[in-house]
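User: For a benchmark we're assembling, each entry needs the component sequences followed by a predicted structure for the full assembly. Here are entry 17's components. Please fill in the structure.
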Amino acid sequence: MTPRILEVRQQILKKNDLCARALRARFDEAGVIVVSLVSSPGAGKTTLLQATLSRLAAGGLRVAALVGDLATDNDARRLAESGAPVRQIVTGTVCHLEADMVDAALAAAQWPLNQLDFLFIENVGNLVCPSSYDLGEHARVVLLSTTEGEDKPLKYPTIFNTSDAAVVTKLDLAGPAGCDLPQMSANIQDVRPGLPILLLSARSGQGMNQWLDFLHNLSTPATQPAQL
Amino acid sequence: MHETSVACQLVDLVRQQIQGQRGRVATVRVQVGVWSGIAAEALAAAYPAAAQGLLPGSKLVIESSQLVVWCDCCQAERNIIDSQRLRCPDCGARAARIVRGTELELLSVEIQDGSENNHDAANS
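Assistant: Structure for entry 17:
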């Protein structure tokens, strides 16, 4: 028997993409700005998020966070100290978040989305796998700490290329770590020309105002980043 | 390593596509760009386990696509080979627009008629 060919041409991760699209539509309707954070383990996602939640809440904004973690609830507990509603997504052995995990976590949390200004999603610490999965966020922000080495963007180009902004963290440690910041920025630009780059230290507070400005600008429709 | 999860989603998608079709899936053809975020070898390694019992005996064929960008300066498509930098190999300018190389797509499914043969094979 001769075989027959069924032409398909569809995204392999179509199911995730559809789920993400539905989430984004819900976020838009509720008027909540959703920002996801990705980085390698230890780059400072939780520390930045802690400082961000506290500052936004102090400014009268309503914020919440979902946090992906392989096994522990340490990050969720740290974030809850800010007073913001936080829900953990334990991924078990899964090395990244997928849109349906976000959907399920939101259903379980039962937050009224239309009463939130910002929702943050902290992905599992991993620079490889999260790049393939749209979570319905308005902006994906990739973090890179000054202690990680300037060539990291070249080693993990896909995650930088699919992000809407890069944040260089631990700016206070740039000197002691011998980090060449211009080189690091050039490498980021080489894998994603035109990507906005912010430099900050969540610990010292340096650069935090620019980061908050960036977040506020996301909430005005005219400056919303185009979805990739 | 999320290739296992991708392989499972690929198998699900194929099963969805072949609903109502007679015969068995012989070949699943996919396109994986070098900047898809997926390692082709790892996907190939993960596929048999994902397909086991669901698409028995099917073969995965991976077509790789290299990175191609649009250079605004040269007004032309340029291949990026052996580099992680989105720079035009001719003029050196940064090229933000990726034309190819990020695909992660199911292209086609080859279906073989002859379920009797299968049945015989299972009984022999």
